[in-house]
Structures are given as C-alpha cells and as structure tokens.
Write a structure and sequence with these properties.
single chain, Muramoyl-pentapeptide Carboxypeptidase, domain 2, four-stranded antiparallel sheet, 8 helices
C-alpha cells in the first residue's frame, strides 16, 4: 500500500478487499471482547443470556445487511447461497471452518511459545480452554435445544457437535445408566506429530480443564475422570480417554 494513502477512496480494488477482511476480523474481536468483559462484569450465566439476546436481535439484521450489499436472498435468517449449496459442499465447508478453528488455535499457541516459551504457552492454552470449553458447551445446548440438565444422554449428543468432532475421530463406549467412556481415536494434532516422528504433545492439563468444564456446563451433576491422556501411555486405537458419570452415583 502506498504510504501517502490518506482516504479509503484512494485504495485499489485489492486493497479494499483486504480492508473488508480486516473489518471482519476487527468485528469478530470486538464481539469476543464484549462477551469476555460481560462475563467478567456480570458472571458467566448472565453473559450467556446477554449473548443469546445479541444473537437473536443482531444476527438476522447483519445477514440481511450483507445480503443487501452482496445481492443474495435470505431464507429464514440464513444466506440463500449457503442454504442452496449441494449437501457435500456444505459438509466440506463445515469441516473447513472447523479445521480453520483448530489451525488458529495452533497458531496462537506457537505465537506465545516462540516469544515466551513452552511454559507460558501451556498456561495460556489451559486458561483459554477454561473459558472456551464451557462457552462451546452452552452454544451447543442452545443449538440443540437441550434442557438445563440433560444428563449423560445430553452430554453424548453435545460431544458429537463440538468443533473437534468435525476434525477428529471419536467414539463412545462402556455405556451404562450411570456413566460412559469417551475416546479420541484419531487426533489431528497428535497424528500430525506422529507422522513427523515426534512424541505426543502433553495435552493432559488442558484436556482435564477442557472436558471437565464442558461436561459441567452441559449438566452440573456430571463429573469427569481422565483415564489416560498424553503424556500418559495409550494404545494405538486412541489418544485420550475420559469417563463421565453423574455426581454422587457409583460408576
């Protein structure tokens, strides 16, 4: 970009496109900062209620505004070009969005690791999961219309709708009325390390935060037990394994 550019009207067509992408990024960050501050000031439950109101009131208007600017129809609050995609294309898009989420997570980790070291990166990563995992759980509860305490069956459903479920391969086993075991059979991050001849990334500390806060956000009665997670040893059929059970009841 020319250093003498003073006005948006002076930008080239490509530079304007770059600015639009930057606007999207700024808007997403502002949205995230609003939520983070609402959670800090009001508490997690009230912040979630505020977020629900924001999405119900603001999102349809935003989609309509983008539709007007780009000339696409809106169907039931959704962009018609998205709804009209062939099923296989829509599934590929879902997977691509989830893969981008995971790549962004890894980029953040490396940015902190390379500038501050592994210790601060792991500490930041664990703290991020402590916020994101229950947020994702509540988002899924809202999407699926789960009741306040949907029990283990609700947790099983919710685990299938995580972002991770679109990039990893997972399974549920050892199901009883009181508990079940969840396993991550193929982990995109760990599999990539394995292909490079690297040891497993020691994700146990983050995993304990991630899975326990996710489960309790789905239903406060549910407790989490880590059966094994790197750096723990594990069979070739899975990387980490977790047992979920209802508090106060035998597993």
């Amino acid at each position: 970009m020319n250093d003498t550019t003073l006005f948006i009207s002076d930008l080239s067509h490509e530079e304007t496109a770059r600015l639009v992408m930057d606007y999207f990024q700024r808007s997403l960050m502002h949205h995230a900062m609003w939520y983070a501050e609402a959670e800090r000031q009001l508490g997690r439950d009230q912040a979630q209620e505020a977020l629900k109101s924001v999405l119900e009131q603001g999102l349809p208007l935003q989609v309509q505004r983008l539709g007007k600017a780009l000339g696409f129809e809106v169907k039931d609050g959704l962009p018609a070009p998205l709804v009209n995609l062939p099923p296989e294309t829509l599934q590929k898009l879902r997977e691509a969005v989830a893969a981008n989420w995971l790549a962004n997570d890894g980029t953040w980790f490396q940015a902190v690791e390379f500038s501050q070291g592994m210790g601060p990166a792991k500490k930041t990563n664990d703290a991020c999961w402590a916020s994101f995992s229950p947020f994702e759980a509540r988002s899924i509860k809202r999407f699926l219309g789960l009741e306040e305490k949907p029990g283990l069956e609700g947790l099983k459903r919710a685990l299938m709708f995580r972002l991770y479920a679109s990039v990893n391969r997972q399974s549920i086993s050892e199901e009883t009325d009181l508990s079940f075991v969840f396993q991550m059979n193929d982990c995109r991050v760990q599999s990539a390390r394995k292909r490079k001849g690297l040891d497993d990334y020691p994700c146990k500390s983050a995993g304990i935060v991630e899975y326990s806060t996710f489960a309790s956000a789905i239903d406060t009665r549910i407790q989490t037990e880590c059966l094994a997670c790197p750096p723990d040893s594990h069979p070739d059929t899975w990387y980490c394994s977790w047992r979920f059970f209802l508090a106060g009841q035998s597993t």
